[in-house]
Amino acid sequence: MARSSSYHSKDKHPVPKFLRGWILPAALVLLWWLAVKFNWSTSPLLVPVDKVWDTAVQQIRSGELAIALEASLRRDLIGFAIGVSAGLVFGVAFGLSRLFERLIGPTFHTLKQISLFAWIPLLSVWFGLGDPAKVAFLSLAAFFPVVLNTFEGIRSVPADLVEAARVLKFNRRQWLFKLILPAASPSILAGIHLALIYAWLATLGAEYLLVSGKGIGNTMIDGRELFLMDLVIFGVIVVGFVGFALNWLAAQIERRLLAWRGRSVAQF
Q1: Crossing angle, helix 64-96 and helix 229-257, to 10 degrees?
Q2: DSSP designation for 112
Q3: What gap in Å lies between CA 207 and CA 241, rounded to an integer?
Q4: How many CB atoms lie within 10 A of CB 172?
Q5: pLDDT for 16-51, tens place per residue?
Q6: This model's pTM is above 0.70
Q7: What DSSP character marks residue 118?
């Protein structure tokens, strides 16, 4: 019976594991190709697959894709770094200090209820329509999930670990770096992972609403204004691939950093 159970527990799926995530995209591309080939739709919005491919090749060879991606990723990473850094400081302060929570908490919890895109008019007045406003917007997108997850992680440290630290007479530095932060690290890393995703989504939103400068969002806007649907679809595909890559990278880092737990919460 044990042998039979072991046999059935093995993955005998006919499709290799590394290909399974591509089944749905491949099916959608096939459906798209068939819809154009057999004229299932006469809408000019449905452009041929090969036209999108030609646009992709042209964007890559001309260097326009590299310029747009560099601009978007630079804003994304700068805003992400600022938001995460500030979020960690505030989150640790919230988690460790009841006084800080009472003084700043009500204001923070009020601000987090405001829609992120509601900040755009105010930021555009303060910083203009260039990169400073976009970076500030991305920093806000990354800030809130890091604060909340850091706070929850610190406040969720098991009581038995706290009692053990008291018995061992930890000093403040040991409390923070040997107990609090390691115990809260799964929640903190989950917040940073979310911040990376939110910052990338906010990058596209900022480029749509603050249209000055280069960026992959601006490429899609150009396609929309010129009614070049192949350029718009190409932009959507690039955005999806970059988001996938960032999410995968964050999951791998999170898994490695939490390897001491036996199994990471970053299950991809």
Answers
A1: 40
A2: T
A3: 18
A4: 8
A5: 665 666 777 777 777 777 777 777 766 667 788 888
A6: yes
A7: G
